[in-house]
Write a structure and sequence with these properties.
CATH architecture of the largest domain: Orthogonal Bundle
Largest sheet: 6 strands, mixed
Shape: globular
Bound molecules: manganese (II) ion
CATH superfamily of the largest domain: Hypothetical protein af1432
């Protein structure tokens, strides 16, 4: 593969005589030395010798020694620009699968990195492929990515597949079809996601050749027939553009090519067009030195030719998720023939052609080859790839692409070959319930990769999981709740208990509640009195005492929640005149204590470096989710949370001893509590003011805890409202509405 795009992609000619691997390897050596790498050629040659010996006696379908495939894969890896370890691994990529050599043999001679890569490629090779629905396909792609812990595993697998596709003619029609389908559905999209346009196009064109030989031949015939005319057209256009750019003093390289067969094919198919109906068969690429030059060239092109409306796309200002950058436009040439022009810098060009692999090949900008090693750089590149994800279609795919890709997911197979996507840490029980609750409920055993395993075994990517069931299974065990990872499995287990074990649940639930109340120091007599119990039940939507106990018993509602409600009800049945904020903070403190016992995050607040610390919301500024917040470590009362714009924070004592007590905190992702906050409304003192404010509050369903208004002289009034909100968005909305009340001059949050 040279950097100069050829006018039409050539399918390599299949050899008639067996290939000589030594000749091929010599050519690879030559290529590597020409690329100017500082690779240890001796080590690469040693890998070749090992592969040659290990595969000796094995033949490819074309009669060549098997090792020719290994050299060819390494050669593609070199073209892609991979590093020395990758070239070594590419040479050895089939030895674990097809010869007696093992991971440790490779590790001993070439290091564990190479051995890990080879093992990774082997694992991918072993994944069984059957055509599936789109969603399954996406999961299969993700699974392959997840299995390849090192991105080089995928890149070598793509090189391997590319060579196999190039030499597919020797395979049976059956194998040609399945491999092409797999390539089209798995490997070409992966190459695309990694930004490797060149490999992607070739994989697609080669696959199409076997998937629709007729359609492929038709396009090729037409292109070949029209080639003289198209080439003449391209030459004329290129000449015109060259001259003009020169005149304008723009330094640029111009390439033109016929579009890829598969892109023409897809266009015919999606737009229901005959090939003669497709006009823009030619594409031009103008490569310049800088981004301003890109736009400069765009202006010149649009000045020379009439642009086709709606075809201008600026992927420089908005790169594609796979890092692709260029500006595209389609213009009408002098003979009324449209053609596409892509304008980009050299750096963008290398990224477009080689995608993620460009990292190993080129340094920024000048295109000189510079192989970098070391994990730091590699991660930086991938991080860059991740950070620029903006489009949603591919973002959930590439989003998790890091070296431990998809760290929160695991992909396993059912015995039928379906890919099941589970949370990381999932067990055979999660798997069983993800298939069907009946499978989980009747589970009597689990096998992973053919071996019987304990139920709490943590599943790994690519595991084949089989569940044994029996009609007479005893049903799920409560212990399972301790290790299942997915909430759906948890819910289904609880549902089973709810349905199958009502009597047991009622007894269990009642005794749990009694224990909890005793623990809280609440009198059972008082709390379980119908006058207290029934209103609480009603609020929690239970009709019968037994329903409530049963729900507690199977875990449908937490005992803490019920007990807290009962205690609050008992308390509020007694007179209590404290202000609402005090009450809130009291209740908050109780929940904290409880959550501390339960070991859960509380109040939706995460405190840096501290688990389960006591949280208190400051009364001065009453933060709500969405506010920028900061914590202050109080003496003996945990961390109190302030807004960053709170006066007490802004005007803090910055002596070292005090400054150290301010600590980073943040809102957790899941906010379940409501938050009380206070706002101050300044207004004209007029008749009906309080009524109008109350009406607005009512109309937006604000949960008001307290409202007081007083005249402050000079015809002005100040109204203070404490209310419950779930976050800053709701609060801002309410504040905006109040600001609209006649006579109101400002609505401020307290504390700032
Ligand atoms: Mn192979």
């Amino acid at each position: 593969m040279s950097d100069q795009p050829s006018p039409i992609m050539e399918i390599p000619v299949q050899p008639n005589t067996p290939l000589d691997p030594d000749v091929m390897f010599a050519a690879l050596e030559e290529k590597l030395s020409q690329q100017g790498h500082t690779m240890d050629i001796g080590r690469i040659r040693a890998a070749y010798e090992v592969a040659k010996t290990a595969h000796s006696g094995q033949k490819r379908k074309d009669g060549s020694p098997y090792v020719t495939h290994c050299v060819a894969a390494a050669d593609i890896a070199a073209d892609i620009g991979l590093d020395e370890d990758s070239i070594v691994a590419a040479l050895l990529h089939d030895v674990i699968e097809d010869t007696n050599l093992k991971h440790e043999d490779i590790a001993r001679q070439f290091g564990s990195q190479v051995a890990d890569i080879v093992e990774g490629v082997t694992k991918l090779t072993r994944v069984q492929y059957t055509s599936k629905e789109d969603e399954q396909m996406e999961n299969l792609r993700k699974m392959l990515m997840a299995m390849a812990k090192d991105i080089r595993v995928i890149l070598i697998k793509i090189a391997d597949r590319l060579h196999n596709m190039r030499t597919m003619d020797y395979q049976s029609p059956e194998k040609q079809r399945t491999k092409s389908l797999e390539t089209m559905e798995i490997y070409a999209p992966i190459a695309h996601r990694l930004g490797m346009q060149r490999a992607k196009w070739e994989l697609e064109d080669l696959s199409l050749r076997y998937l629709d030989p007729q359609g492929y031949a038709e396009i090729m015939d037409t292109l070949n027939r029209r080639m003289p005319e198209l080439e003449a057209f391209m030459d004329r256009m290129k000449e015109q553009i060259c001259q003009r750019l020169e005149k304008e003093g723009v330094h640029a390289s111009i390439f033109c090519r016929i579009k890829h067969v598969y892109s023409i094919y897809r266009k015919m198919y999606t737009q229901k067009l005959d090939i003669n109906g497709i006009f823009d068969l030619c594409a031009f690429r103008v490569i310049v030195d800088s981004i301003p030059d890109c736009y400069n060239v765009l202006g010149i092109i649009h000045d020379m030719f009439k642009p086709v409306p709606g075809r201008f796309k600026d992927y420089i200002s908005t790169p594609k998720p796979n890092m692709y950058q260029s500006v595209h436009t389609t213009v009408i040439g002098s003979e009324g023939i449209p053609f596409e022009v892509q304008i980009r810098t050299w750096e963008m060009h290398y990224t477009a052609e080689y995608g993620i692999a460009a990292h190993w090949k080129y340094k920024m900008g000048d295109g000189s080859s510079a192989v970098r090693s070391g994990d730091e750089d590699k991660f930086a590149w991938i991080r860059r790839l991740l950070e620029t994800q903006s489009e949603s279609d591919a973002s959930d795919f590439v989003h998790d692409l890091k070296i431990d890709m998809f760290s929160d997911e695991v992909f396993v197979f059912s015995p039928k070959g379906d890919v099941i996507n589970l949370s990381a840490g999932a067990t055979p029980v999660d798997f069983a319930y993800s298939i069907h609750s009946d499978i989980g409920n009747h589970m009597v055993g689990a096998k992973v990769n053919g071996r019987i395993v304990p139920y709490d075994t943590v599943l790994q990517n690519g595991d084949i999981v089989e569940i044994r069931t029996s009609k007479s299974a005893p049903g799920p065990s409560r212990d399972w709740l301790n290790f299942v990872k997915s909430s759906s499995a948890r819910t289904k287990i609880k549902q089973w208990y709810k349905k199958e074990r009502r009597e047991e649940n009622i007894l269990r639930g009642r005794s749990m509640l009694e224990d909890e109340l005793r623990h809280m120091g609440v009198s059972l007599e008082e709390a379980l009195n119908p006058d207290i119990l029934h209103p609480v039940m009603k609020k929690l939507s239970f009709n019968e005492d037994d329903d409530l106990y049963a729900a507690i018993g199977y875990g449908g509602i937490t005992v803490v929640r019920v007990a807290n409600r009962l205690r609050d009800e008992v308390k509020s049945a007694r007179p209590d005149h404290r202000n609402p904020i005090d009450k809130m903070n009291d209740a908050a403190e109780r929940r904290e204590q409880q959550a501390k016992r339960d070991g859960k995050a509380i109040h939706g607040i995460l405190v840096e470096g501290l688990d389960n610390c006591l949280i208190k919301f400051s009364r001065c500024c009453t933060p709500v989710p969405g506010d920028d917040i900061i914590g202050f470590i109080t003496r003996g009362q945990g961390v109190s949370i302030h807004r960053k714009d709170c006066q007490n924070y802004r005007r803090r004592d910055t002596s070292p001893e005090n400054e150290g007590r301010w600590i980073a905190v943040d809102w957790a992702n899941t906010i379940t509590d409501v938050y009380v906050t206070t706002i101050t409304i300044s207004s004209r003192d007029r008749n009906g003011l309080v009524m109008d404010i109350a009406t607005v509050l009512n109309s937006v369903n604000a949960k008001v805890r307290n409202l007081s208004s007083r005249a402050v002289g000079f015809g002005q009034a100040v109204t203070v409202v404490s209310l419950e909100v779930k976050d800053i968005t709701e609060l801002r909305y309410i504040m905006n509405r109040i600001a609209g009340v006649a006579g109101v001059s400002s609505v401020m949050r307290n504390g700032s």
